[in-house]
Design brief:
9 helices, alpha/beta, about 25% strand, about 250 residues, single chain, globular, five-stranded mixed beta sheet
Length: about 250
Amino acid sequence: MSIKWLKTLGAGLALSVAATSVNADTLRVVTDPSFVPFEMMDQETGEMIGFDMDIISEVAERAGFDYNLNTMDFNGIIPALQTGNVDIAIAGITITEERGRIVDFSDPYYDSGLRILVRQDNDDVQQMSDLEGKKIGTKIGSTSYDFLVKTLDKDGGVTPYPGSSDMYMALMSRAIDAVFYDAPNVGYFASTRGKGRVKTVGQLYEGQQYGIALKKGSEWVGPVNEALASIKEDGTYKAIYEKWFGPMPEGD
């Protein structure tokens, strides 16, 4: 079931009540509720929090729109944009040529990649070739799944899961041997709930960039890009980044 609420930004509300202003557009924004720390449910408030949630809040305020936020499984996000059921999606979505044919992307807002996660006591897996013949968990509809089936000669052991928590539970219960997924997500899990039980190994595979996805032909691509440039320029992006990931690497 989707969890829906209306998020009205302070600046947008002030504009809507001003006598000389025009009401801001209210766009339909969607995210995946399980890609921590980019988006996750705050169990106390019932609202979505995370890096992406802070980013879209700032972008909306600066681009001039309010939004309704819904959640859905990641594999449904691109189809929802393609059919026009939603206007914008932010969920750690990797910019790819294939996706770019059916949706529009903003400029990149986060540099990422893919990484291997194994149990703490597993010293047999250090690189991609070590995954041959192993049981590997990844996420349905993700670029990590595509990478695995293209790279491994024996990809029969690849199991796509609907949510990241499902594959992490499978790893710790020994149902699978490894997880292969977005580096910031596996790194966050390894340093929080999985601390002392799992570890990341090997290099960063297939450098990727995340973008905000919009329905094809959206008039909001330009304003969204301007807003992203603005938050990077004035230090807001850096503050949001360090809130969720710690010190920002030099040069980012």
